[in-house]
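Exercise 7 asks you to align residues with tokens for two separate proteins.
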Amino acid sequence: MQTKSTGIEGGLTVEEAFALILQNNLESVQVWAPIALRGEDIEGVHQMRVCLRRIRSALTVFRSAIRKKTTKSLSNEIRWAAKALDRARDLDVYITENLASKGNGQQKRLRKIAEKHRQEAYEQVEELIKGRRYATLCKEFNDWIEARKWCENISADQQGRFQENITPFASRVLEEHRSLILEYGKEIDQLDNETLHKLRIECKKLRYATEFFKPLYGGKMKSFTGHLKNLQDLLGLIHDTAVMTGLQKDLLKNKKNKKLSSFTHKLERQRQKEVQKILKMVSNRWQAFSEAERPWPTIADAAA
């Protein structure tokens, strides 16, 4: 199952594109929710979480047209819903990447512990999806989109921004996000883990924006997004290692088992070795991304 396409076309206004992106992603959340609830396919929680994050990203992408205070409450509620899925997703990834094979006795013990935590995490997912707060969020968000409530009490200047054609707006947004990433990634070989984490988040924001606006640029977006994805994937693997360390500490909390503890430390050392290899690759991926041709016109292109 694939997440629904945005369906953006060049003739749309900023407001029409914004509403379409939000509506399509809300519908996708509701499609994936029953799959997440069943817990049989880990893509359910993953895709539901991604769609919620896309919605928050859209609220940021369109920030120059829509006031932050107009979307703040909604954004906070969506963030709450997405975070409620974090634990289940982290455990899904951890078990799949580290404990999928039969393994030895310690691996079996660790998997049993992780599976118990996963079951508890999916109970939280069920509580979210069946809860009143989530139902209220979905209804009020849908009503907010249909009524175009972001247009209430706005100035003529802001209304004018909504009626602008989406293509030049998208080009400006994409260029701004790309420039921010280039700024964050200066001297990438010297960046600490915290800054690499921030860079990963900015890459994710640009990735969502390229997905929103891909239909406006046709096949030209594919190569650029490919370079961005390659960089984002490496940064994601580095982040997953940090998540793994904290997760294993939680799994072994109040468990005094030296052999099991030794096994988890072994897993961490293996991942750290992989991270060292990944860090050597980041510079090349960064260079490829920074030199990738942009599918949208720049100021220099317009001047020419």
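Second protein for Exercise 7:
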Amino acid sequence: MKKTLRIIKNRSDIGAGTRGADIGIDAMEIAAINAENDFFNRTAFIDVKTHNESIYNKVQNSSAKRINFVVEQCQRVAEAVKKTLEKEEFPLVLSGDHSSALGTIAGIKTKNPTQRLGVVWIDAHADLHTPYTSPSGNIHGMPLAAAMQEDNIKMKSNTPDKDTLKAWESLKTIGINNPKFETQNLVYFGVRDTETAEDTLINSNHIKNYSVPEIRFRGIEKCVNEAIEKLADCDAIYITFDVDSLDCDYVSSGTGTPVPLGFTPNEVKTIISAFLKTNKVIATEFTEINPLLDNKGNLMAETAFDILHHCFG
């Protein structure tokens, strides 16, 4: 059944290390206007309230910065996603930083707690850090660990205080107090910038990462079809696209943590479109566009909108 698209605009960037992703959605809308495309005018949307003003507060939780506000933000996103699904609509989440993915996943599971969820994570980063392991304390590097309810204490390098750990428990239990998906139902595309603590979880859980070199060597269609088959037993699939999965030298540096040797825009279009054709995709997210860091005008937002319109226009 074809569903009505509803955009969920989450302009929060408090989980990132650099300001500017909060206007990434606006930059995509400007890209659409400049392309004389009325996509945003003809698509219903929800604006999610943010805590962006908290970025000016003194950081109290250095191993998980502004975590109390991130918990509230993810709760808001989860509620918006759940309500959208309850209306039999398709949530297209546009977010500032990637910490909101925990909220999106929680919203999906709150609406469908018994469904087996597959997660397609298109990103340069694994986002598997925790307050115990994060070298930066930025929570946009932690959403998958929170969704898996994984602390990774054996790779501990930080000693979080009790308030941080209390908030971390709240983050992990948004929606339902269980892991939101099984690790065998997580598939990475393009991950290439990780730390040892994350690599340990990837290896111990046998999480598949389709790297850029593998996809180009074996062929993108073969790899994507293999990933679709891997998730064949899932009832629903969530796709998240972090623009830093793109090659920052080929596209632009308009994201908080750009990494070279990434995907081309056409490769990302192929990956997302192939999963959409399975009719199992229940929600999609576009994230981490930072026009303040773009060295080529507004090219990252223009590229992200081009991918979005190709897949959903």
